Amino acid sequence: MIEKGIAVIGSTSIDQIIHRNRRVFKAGGVTVYSGITYSRHGIATRAITNIADCNPQVMACLRNQRILVHNGQTRQTTRFINDIRTGNRQQKNPQRAAPISRQQVLDHVKGADGVHLGPLHPKDIDISGIKSLKGLKRQVILDIQGLVRTVRNGNVYLAGSQQLIDALDVSQIVKANRHEYAVMLDFFQTDLMTIMQRFDIREFVVTSGASGGFVQESTAPATPYAAAPAKSDGDPTGAGDIFMAAYVVEHLLKQRSVADACQYAASLVAQQIEGKFIKEDELRIKTPLRLTK
């Protein structure tokens, strides 16, 4: 369970969002979108992350949302450029923070009975830190997005990684979008139930934007869900992170059914796309950025 709080682990990023010929800098990453969602549902939330001292606005975005930040040492903050002017998001990752260390993980998961792993690329969290969660008797939620990516010349491509194996091995609830899900199946060259049995995964959540998605439980047939209609075509950045955190709160903490938890999470995503949940002004980096030390 997660009554005592949750630790969200991963880089907090500076995201340049290009949407409808408009460019804006915002704080991003699973620590931001999932972290804020947990916090707004009354969950004691901490972020184990690496943000450079020269980017205090990024840190403020978390602290202003009542998230306790355990920040490590890094010379630079992770950056992404997300071009979402077309249906297929194009990503660049020109800058990466130092990996989150095993010691950071061990020092700061104490007091939290839930852990939400949100690496943004395969080396975001030191693999020994991920492995250290195996014997800690924590509820571990994993978003595989960063573990099915590779970065070449600053461009982000989909690809499986060895780190995916180690992260699945410590996790009970896992989330992927439909593209990441396809990469995972190709990486393991087998079906979802075989993967779930191999790693003892209890629930696997697959999101597919406006098409909805499904949740596969280890002991029940898949539960499909429909996306909630959004009244405007806003920025979808972070929608999957919000969905997953809302699902976890409703299903794990409030003990609602998988179907009801999905319906609630989908409604919150619609609010986000309409600009009504986590508002742009709460995440925007308003002053010129000094991107490196």
Describe the structure.
The mean pLDDT is 94. The protein has helices spanning 30-40, 56-63, 102-108, 127-131, 162-168, 178-188, 192-199, 239-253, 258-273, 280-283; strands at residues 6-9, 13-19, 22-28, 45-49, 67-71, 79-83, 90-95, 114-117, 139-143, 149-152, 155-158, 173-177, 203-207, 213-217, 223-225. By secondary structure, the chain is an alpha/beta fold. The longest helix has 16 residues, at 258-273. The chain has one domain (6-282): 3-Layer(aba) Sandwich (UDP-N-acetylmuramoyl-L-alanine:D-glutamate ligase), CATH 3.40.1190.20. α8 runs antiparallel to α9. It starts with 5 loop residues before the first strand and ends in a 10-residue tail after the last helix. Helices cover 31% and strands 25% of the residues.
List keywords for this structure.
UDP-N-acetylmuramoyl-L-alanine:D-glutamate ligase, 293 residues, 10 helices, 9-stranded mixed beta sheet, 4-stranded mixed beta sheet, 25% strand, alpha/beta
How is the secondary structure organized here?
Layout: E1 6-9, E2 13-19, E3 22-28, H1 30-40, E4 45-49, H2 56-63, E5 67-71, E6 79-83, E7 90-95, H3 102-108, E8 114-117, H4 127-131, E9 139-143, E10 149-152, E11 155-158, H5 162-168, E12 173-177, H6 178-188, H7 192-199, E13 203-207, E14 213-217, E15 223-225, H8 239-253, H9 258-273, H10 280-283
Helix pairs in contact: 1-8, 8-9
